[in-house]
Each structure stands twice: as C-alpha cells, then as structure tokens.
Amino acid sequence: YLLLGRWRKKHLTFRILNLPSTLPPHIARAALLRAFKYWSSVAPLTFREVQTGWADIRLSFHGHQSPYCSNTFDGPGRVLAHADIPELGSVHFDEDELWTEGTYRGVNLRIIAAHELGHALGLGHSRYTQALMAPVYAGYRPYFQLHPDDVAGIQDLYGKKNPETRNEEEEMKVPTGPPVPREPSPMPNPCSGELDAMMLGPHGKTYAFKGDYVWTVTDSGLGPLFLVSDLWEGLPGKLDAAVYSPRTQWIHFFKGDKVWRYINFKMSPGFPKKLNKVEPNLDAALYWPVNQKVFLFKGSGYWQWDELAPTDFSRYPKPIKELFTGVPNQPSAAMSWRDGRVYFFKGKKYWRLNRQLRVEKGYPRNTAHSWMHCHPHTPSTTASAGDITPLATDALSNTDTVLDVTSSVTD
Amino acid sequence: RALGPAEESAVDYLLQYGYLQKPLEGPDNFRPEDVTEALRAFQEASELPVSGQLDDATRARMRQPRCGLEDPFNQKTLR
Prior knowledge:
Chain A is an alpha+beta fold. Chain A has 8 helices and 25 strands. In chain A, the strands form 6 sheets. In chain A, strands 2-1-3-5-4 form a 5-stranded mixed sheet, with helices on one face. In chain A, strands 8, 9, 10, 11 and 12 form a 5-stranded antiparallel sheet that branches. In chain A, a hairpin with a 2-residue loop joins strand 10 (213-218) and strand 11 (221-222). Chain A starts with 10 loop residues before the first strand and ends with a helix. The longest helix of chain B has 14 residues, at 32-45. Chain B has helices spanning 5-16, 32-45, 56-62, 75-78, and one strand at 66-67. Chain B contains 4 helices and 1 strand. Chain B is globular and about 35 Å long. The A-B interface holds A 2, 71, 73, 77-83, 97, 107, 112, 115-116, 119, 124-125, 127, 129, 135-137 and B 17, 45-47, 61, 63-73. Strand 4 (79-83) of chain A pairs parallel with strand 1 (66-67) of chain B.
C-alpha cells in the first residue's frame, strides 16, 4: 500500500450530491453506504451522512463537463472515477459508466466507491492486483471483501478498530470465555456433521447452525459456538433455514410458519412475519448471485423469490431436480459459497454443484471432514458446554484446499 | 524517431498514470530508454511479462477500466 495523506480526525461527515441514472436510487445509495462500511469495519472511523451544507467527503457524478472539476471524464470505459486525497474530500464518478450492483455486467458502484474512498482517506494504489486499491478494476465479485493490504494500509493511517467501537460481529472473534447456555440445551458437536442451516453471511463469513447454536467456519478452523439468540437477538434456535442476500444486505431466517429479517445483527422492524406464500417448515434456503434470487426448499420442491419484486408463486413449488441436478430431496441446508459454487447438505454429507447447478463428480462427501475440519476418529456424540475441541487439521490456505486435500486423503 | 499513434497513446497513458515523468525543462520528447523503463515498470506492476516492448498484452491492459489517480509503481518518477 502507499500512504498519500491522512485526516486529522476520525469522525467524518459525507454528502451524496447526486446519483447515477443507471441504478434505482435506493440501490445506488445502498452501494455507496456499503462502501463506507468496508473501511469503518476495520478502522476506528465513523461516517455520518449530511443532506445539506458542507461535508468532509462529497460524492458526485459528472461526465465530460463539470463546473467544479477540471479533471473531466472520458465516456464509458477507461477512467471510471477519481478522488482527492485528504483533507480535500471530493470523490467523483464518471456518469457515463454503466453503474450496476449485484451483477457481472457494467461497473460495480460499491467496489469503485470503496476504492475512491480509500483515496479520500489517504491510500494510494496498491501493487496487489487483487487488492481493492489496485488501479485497474478487477470486475464484480459477489462476496467482495478488503484485501489484507487494504486493511494494513488503512490501519497504518488510523489504527485498528478499538474495542468500544467494535460491533457485535467483532464479538465473534474474541470469545469472553465459553458461552454459558441459559437453559441446559445440549451443545451440538460440529463433528457430527449434521446441520440445521448453513449461510454465507455479510463480509464473507460462513455460519453453521445446529440446535440453539451457531458457529463460524473459516479456512483455518471453527469459531466458538454461540447461542443464536446471543448474536441475533429475538431469534429462536433450531432453525429451518437461513439465507443472506448481498443484493439487499438482508438476512432471512425461517422457522415453522415464520420468517425473521435482519440487517447484520439488527432485526428489521415488523419482523417476524407469518409465512403465507410458501409452505411452512422449510428445509433450506440459498441466494444465487447469478440471477440474484433467493431459493427456498422443502421436500422435493423449490420456490424462487425476488426480494425486491412481487413474485407470483402460483407456479411453485417446482421440482428441485428440474434445476439442481443430482441433489437429494429434503436437504437440511444449502448455500451459494465464495467459490461461486452451490452446496447442499443432508445428514452427514454434502454435494457441490458447478455453475450449471449440476452435482460435480466425486460428491457427496463428508461434511465433518471437509467443512468442520474434523478427523475421522472424532467422536460424534453431543458434547457438553465448553469441551468442543474441533480437531482442525493443518491450517491450509483456503477451505477449498481443505475440501480437496481431505477427500483425496479419504480416497 | 516519431512515434506511431499506438505508441503515442501508450506514452500518454504512461504519462497520465505516473510511469513517465514529463521533463521539467527542455524538449517534450522522451529518450527511448525512458519509455522502455516506464513500460517495464507498468508491465511488472500489471503482472505481465516484463519486456519493455509495447506488446498486445500491454496494450490490452492499458485499455482496461481503472481509477483516474496515478500509480506509484515507477520508483524513479515516484522519487
């Protein structure tokens, strides 16, 4: 990373002066607000929006002509945006670009805005071509997150996020000691390989749900088990399904005939609601980034749901096997993952589907070995609180490697 | 020697993004070795084969959408 300057304060105001014509305003705004969040979630920075008057950071769109910018743009392609370094604060986007969100088409507004905010906060370009601060746009990534070089640069400027400003999600990383379950509900053993739900959540975190508990699954091992209600206040355990949509930032949990909606760990007003257009007691749910829809599964059927448009469910449920070739009926969990593939879980096994939604050769495989980093001899009994010691195998570079290495060892 | 149009636009790119430094005084044209060095810096930063020649891969990379700010990847111009 390269440092070009820094703000002498850490609590900044911002103002969105205008929006692009190629996106619905609320989607464009959500993309810009999300761009700020990438930086405020790794450094002690806060950003407060103002609707009028002066602001530290000012975002606007202009084209070949601009009354307040000598650096005009060049039409679609090539230069996408530019920004001044601290403490100037102007961030300009080329209004002639096809600004999009949640699709591989056009130019992703959220990612470019996060890059330009990096400049406005004092970062120069990074030599890592996959870093956010790389000069050339590397295209839309459905589960985008900052590169370690981006994080190192912003923390070099403003320090690490300090404890009092840590949000609930940070708590996942620093357990205050084994969570004490309020009632004696047995703590599940992730090495049993059985799941109620799996979810690729905000910031690319993988969450596994079983009984009243949830834990994260990372490349190097499992996070501590927490009561679901400790993270998502008001949410019961023993869930039927869970799904996060990067398109809306909504997390939906399903249980029985109810649905809960959260944004990060905050329940949206008016929830839980009664499920009325799809059957209760669902089995699983996933978000498919290719068509940006949520899929709900029960028995041998599925529903396809557009979160932002009225969906005609009269032609559903449709047979799962018609669209997801080779997967079992009544899955216990399902998710689209960071590697662009879709995963179905049932019993102790899981199936991996390619981009054509066909089960790949060599599946199903064992969930406990490949996802929960468990050795074959780990007892699959229900452990009591605190003695979960997932026997993570060697820390490998990424879960996919774990999947391949473990299975080849098994074979 | 006079530059062809493709080379001209490549030099503009290298200038715009900080790989070539406009001489503070004296004639505008660049010594061939400056352009070669600037191309090498760009190719290395773009994880392209470092040839110092304006090959197709380099031209394609220069056409990719990007940020309008300069790149600090040519140590000489950065200094």
